[in-house]
Amino acid sequence: MREIAYEDIVKHVRDIIMYSATHLPEDALNALKEAYENEKSPVSKEVLKQLLENAEIASSESRPLCQDTGLAVFFVKLGADVKIVGGLLKDAINEGTEQGYKDGYLRASTCTPFSRENLKDTVGYNLPAIIHLDIVEGDKIEIEYAAKGGGSENVSRARVFPPAAGKEGVIEFVKECISDAGPNPCPPITVGVGIGGTFEKAAISSKHALFRDIGSKNDDPEMAELEEVIKTEINKLGIGSMGMGGTETALAVHIEANPCHIASLPVSVNVQCHSSRHTHITI
Amino acid sequence: MSEVYHLTTPLTEDVTRKLKAGDIVYLSGTIYTARDAAHKRLVDLIEAGKELPFDLKGSVIYFVGPTPPKPGEPIGSAGPTTSYRMDSYSPTLLKHGSKGMIGKGKRNQAVKDACKEYGGIYFGATGGAGALLGKQIKSAEVIAYPELGPEAIRKLEVEEFPVTVINDTYGNDLYQMGREQYEVK
Ligand code: SF4
Question: How many domains does chain B divide into?
Fold first, then answer.
């Protein structure tokens, strides 16, 4: 058994939250630069230039990249040989989240569903965090973190198709989702697609697919090919940066596929805006 | 082709009727922030015939919920929020004299019609460029509804704040026009 102090986890979570809010990761920066090179529309090119400038200002002046600093989303792999001393893992993540959002002067955006009251003074500052936990072999804790804004989350969709829908059905569904979304999710976007599993498994997979580095290749050749097909189809829509028209709409399409029931083909689309604030650490 | 303008608020109808979808505008002067909750309160006040917390005439309203300012700074990051949530309120504000809105994302037909009828403009700012846009804001003061936190109404002084005309007073929509131009059928 390896012992990890509760306080250590709190501190790590706090630090990645503050860092992520102001530093666009390398993969996203490179993808934006590439889009800037390839974009045919002058208006969209100007937007991409602003986004690159924005990333520069954010990191050099420690200002949040975007005012929507998101809900804090975590995928955590807890090694079976880890013993956390001094408290529960979930509490440590929430405490680190609260500290990170407060100390980083980030926006608290959690509220109740109907009264819309902000939860910062009752439940906690930008709490609760959204935590997906898995227990794995080993004596480490792996934490993948994303700050997920509302604009891109609002256009996401899930649906269970009959098996006959096949690949064509999936391609059409994703295309329709992105086409309807237009400018709203702050393109250029990364599109996470969860295929298979059950209804909720597809949704979680579509979110997790967004944690893969932009520009990396899917290990499964069939899915790698499907990703390219969908990306090309999306870029034909002409949406462009911030929806002002252009050739570069999707920076990447990431698929996570799972085995599913013989009767169903669940599909979920989760969209990531250009402000792709993802990071991971191992404790 | 698109023109570039440097404008100072409040905006008059002579000016707004010149602008076309796709034009780039650098705004200076006073603008006001409001999101859904504040919009609802403004429209309730208008319907009750009560006085508003600021003069709507020629005003430009920015749909934004900024991050908290760091000590010594007027405001944190301050990029636009998605505008459709304001669609049910914007026509009333345009009818009562407001001339501009800044946000991101599509508006509904009622808003586009109100822009035509009352000479209003819907400007798009670059979503997610919160650090860059926040820097163009020179001062910020909460003038109403502090209890709404990031959604309170703030009076901002901006300098050369970069926006693009999305919906003009002629019914044009840059989102449609831009997309049609680059769509591969
Ligand atoms: S969609 Fe992303 S970039 Fe756009 S406002 Fe929301 S968090 Fe920011």
Answer: 1
